[in-house]
Amino acid sequence: MIEIPKPTLGRLPLYYRALVAANEGGIEILSSAELGENAGVDSAQVRKDLTYFGQFGRPGVGYNVVNLLAELERILGLKNPNEAVLIGAGRLGMAICNYPGFSRYGLKIVAMFDVDPAKIGEKLDGLEVFSLEKLERIVGKLGSQIGIITTPAPSAQQVANKLVAAGVRAIWNFAPVNLKVPPSIILRNEDLAVGLATLSHYLSGKK
Amino acid sequence: MIEIPKPTLGRLPLYYRALVAANEGGIEILSSAELGENAGVDSAQVRKDLTYFGQFGRPGVGYNVVNLLAELERILGLKNPNEAVLIGAGRLGMAICNYPGFSRYGLKIVAMFDVDPAKIGEKLDGLEVFSLEKLERIVGKLGSQIGIITTPAPSAQQVANKLVAAGVRAIWNFAPVNLKVPPSIILRNEDLAVGLATLSHYLSGKK
DNA sequence: TAGATTGTTAATCGATTAACAATC
DNA sequence: TAGATTGTTAATCGATTAACAATC
Q: In Å, how far from its chain's centre is CA B144?
């Protein structure tokens, strides 16, 4: 099995989005150049990325929008969304819960946890907030595979430990901290400071 | 002038964070191995990254924490924060406004904009929310360099156009859409679907 | 001096881009 | 058939990793 480059994986949602838009616009065929244009990616890159998964186009014609949409849905696993729990029902946590069409992108948040007594037992956006103490039990019962950490940085490592103990396979960390987890755990950090550093470097450079 | 690799820029905040923690812990010297351990980066990578900006260590000894902290503050421009306006005072917008110690990372949000009449004129976290119609005038007056877009996807392009017209130099886009902006504009997309795609790929793979 | 660790060069690895034969 | 566009190989580019002389 050939390894998929990480950047390729990151571009698939961009293609998916461009295809959804094209489909809604009634467009039936898209060339790699057109698809790339709408996704912000070079046409050669588009073709190369897609060939990691199969041959979806017709030479001299292009890609069938509906067909390629279906392929990407399959590749991205959008039909069988992953179930996740979210820890930290603050603003960021709620924002993520409400990320537009998150379910559409293959994620379903099934429970929220917090330490704030004022939030525990409440329903936020139709989702009950549980005490952090119940994390291990509930994750075990639900069999959730993903834990999303949106707590303040100082609590994040402790929460990560609980998630690992509870048996999640992946952690999506939004707290600005370097988490230590066993190598078997899939860890993805979403770090705003990283984006900001890039931005401000270019700002200071191109005077 | 040597071009700084983008991945290097993204790792600087990780080093900065590790150094802050070390400094608070009273640690005065850190080797590249120790710094890398705390930042989640290989030691050779740490040394290589730092040499793009200068020579900050002492062979046989390591890096002086306070000294390197000061250098990184300078490199990241944390002493002269960039001023930004934020458009879209929803949950995500508010979450970003409250990102822990954002000011510490060199960003100061100076005004918020929204189209919701219920929000316009209100003060959210001490920041007044203005009508989107006033965007161009206020950005011009304040001379803001960065526009942060946290609107729903369908409005994002229109907001980006207004920001460009108003004269911002950089756009930090959180809406899941491919924005078209002139090449002179620095554009950074923060896209949750990208992270999710990566996570779910690995989840489905390592059965 | 002996031991440790930097800064830097060279080797490796991985991703992007260019080019084009095959195909519609 | 002539024109267009894919899939794929080869060339280029850029980043990471390894190795080690210089330095403390």
A: 15
Give the model's pLDDT for residue A1.
57
Confidence band (pLDDT; 50, 70, 90) for A104? confident
Say if residues B126 and B103 touch (Cβ distance below 8 Å): no
Same domain, B130 and B169: yes
* B204 falls within a domain: no
Confidence band, pLDDT 50/70/90 cuts, at residue A206: very low
**Residue ranges making up the domain that contains B95:** 82-194
Whether residue B128 is found in the same domain as residue B184? yes
Structural domain count of chain A? 2
pLDDT tens string A140-165: 999 999 999 999 999 999 999 999 99
Query: Do B95 and B63 lie in a common domain?
Result: no
Do residue B112 and residue B177 come from a single domain?
Answer: yes
Last residue of a domain, one of B76, B95, B120: B76
3-state helix vs strand vs coil in chain A, percent to 5: 45, 20, 35
Task: Say if strands A170-173 and A186-189 run parallel, antiparallel, or are unpaired.
Answer: parallel
* Contact between the CB of B43 and strand C at under 7 Å: yes
Of A6, A177, A192, the CB nearest to B198: A6
Apex CA A90: angle with CA A87 and CA A91, to 5°? 130
User: Are B197 and A40 a contacting pair at CB < 8 A?
Assistant: no
Q: Give the closest of B145, B191, B196 to A107, CB-based.
A: B196
Contact between the CB of A47 and strand C at under 7 Å? yes
Q: What is the pLDDT of residues B70-117, one digit of tens each?
A: 999 999 998 888 999 999 999 999 999 888 777 788 899 999 999 999
Residue B37: which CATH number?
1.10.10.10
